Amino acid sequence: MKSVYEKSVTVLGSTGSVGTQALDVARSLELKVDAITGATRIDILEDQIRGFKPSVCAVLDEDRARELALKVADTSCKVVGGYDAIVDIAGQGVSDSVINSITGKAGLRPSLAVIESGVSLALANKETIVCAGELVNKALAEKNVKILPVDSEHSAIFQSIANNRHGDISKVILTASGGPFYGKTRDELAGITPEMALAHPTWKMGPKITIDSATLMNKGFEVIEAKYLFDVEPSQIDVIVHPESIVHSMVEYIDKAVLAQLSCPDMRLCVQYALSYPNRCAGTLKPLDLTEVGSLTFKKPDKKTFKLLGLAYDVLNRGGNLGAALNGANERAVALFLDKRISFTDIMDLVCEAVDKIAYIEDPTLDDIEQTDIRSRELIDELLRS
Ligand code: MN3
């Protein structure tokens, strides 16, 4: 087996929060970076090209790709533009692992391309599984490829399962920070502005996932993610609020033993474990001093006020194309909220209504999922006008 230090990586979505941290990890593990991709932020991409010397870089925005090509003409990095170029890079099969830290449903086709190429997928893009859990699992089985979860909760569950028998798992318990608005009533939530919602107490993340954390949609997505990653039933997935974000999630076994993974909250640990698995590397994380933390607290989530968490369980129980509908509707609603065109509670109401209205497809193809995504976004706009 190759030592972790000789491994190479491709980073999809390298300019985002997880992407930049993935490159920090690549630097500390001395991994070779084969390729990077980004949407628009070419200044960051230019720095990354100079620092990590990838042989290719894709930019979603084609005009920006041309600008970047001129800026880095003195390097040996080839710059390509457009969504298909990103999917091609995802599927080129040259790296030992590909980390997908693209935001939103745009991460789905790149994830499938990675799996198709037979390379292990370090997955930070949870929308891949929310939209197409069944299709993804089918592709993984066909190609005999593994997903290494980067989401901190799923990384914790993955580590807590280790070599235990799957049949001995009785429950997975996802922890949630509770977001900045834990304990608020619906009336109090109505007046929340994007600025208030973007100030997350523990994790520093991009705007989309920060809003999803505040509505608990993110936790709902993680419930869906858990079912497909760990092959457990919705009734075996619990969520508990743990504001300190030290216990990253837990697994309960049939003998009622509970195993958990704890650490200071730092996404770089999750990325590093996904890239170095099955080994562990020293890295840069600060040690956890529990006497400094003092106490760990746990509370029940409020699924009634934060109804998108409850909706995620319904969606998971009904399956089909509803995950894609939930994600599409939510992406559109969050964009409208960030644009100050709808209120915080409108996000929750509109997403529930849109999922309710979508035409159900039991066994969706990739094309059905794409269509459901488009239709669910349209439904949000139609509901807003009505
Ligand atoms: Mn998470």
State the main characteristics:
386 residues, alpha/beta, Rossmann fold, Rna Polymerase Sigma Factor, Chain: A, four-stranded mixed β-sheet, 17 helices, globular, binds manganese (III) ion
Report how far the terminal alpha carbons are from each other: 60 Å
> What is the count of β-strands?
11
Ligand catalogue = manganese (III) ion
- Name the structural class: alpha/beta
Please name the CATH topology of the largest domain: Rossmann fold
Strand order, main sheet: write it out: 4-3-2-1-5-6-7
Count of helix runs: 17
Strand content: 5-15%
> What is the alpha-carbon Rg in Å?
20 Å
Compact description:
The protein has helices spanning 17-28, 42-52, 62-71, 83-90, 108-116, 127-143, 152-161, 186-190, 194-197, 207-215, 217-230, 267-276, 290-293, 307-318, 322-338, 344-357, 366-385; strands at residues 8-12, 32-38, 56-59, 78-81, 97-100, 120-123, 147-149, 169-176, 237-241, 247-253, 258-262. The protein has 17 helices and 11 strands.
Description:
With 386 residues, this protein is of the alpha/beta class. The protein has three domains: 4-149, Rossmann fold (3-Layer(aba) Sandwich); 152-184 and 194-306, no CATH class; 319-386, Rna Polymerase Sigma Factor, Chain: A (Orthogonal Bundle), CATH 1.10.1740.10. 48% of the residues lie in helices and 15% in strands. The chain has helices at 17-28, 42-52, 62-71, 83-90, 108-116, 127-143, 152-161, 186-190, 194-197, 207-215, 217-230, 267-276, 290-293, 307-318, 322-338, 344-357, 366-385; strands at 8-12, 32-38, 56-59, 78-81, 97-100, 120-123, 147-149, 169-176, 237-241, 247-253, 258-262. The strands form two sheets. It has a seven-stranded parallel sheet with strand order 4-3-2-1-5-6-7, with helices on both faces. It has a four-stranded mixed sheet with strand order 9-8-10-11, with helices on one face. Helix 1 (17-28) crosses helix 12 (267-276) and helix 6 (127-143) runs antiparallel to helix 15. The longest helix has 20 residues, at 366-385. It starts with 7 loop residues before the first strand and ends with a helix. The structure holds manganese (III) ion. The site of manganese (III) ion has 4 residues, from helix 7.
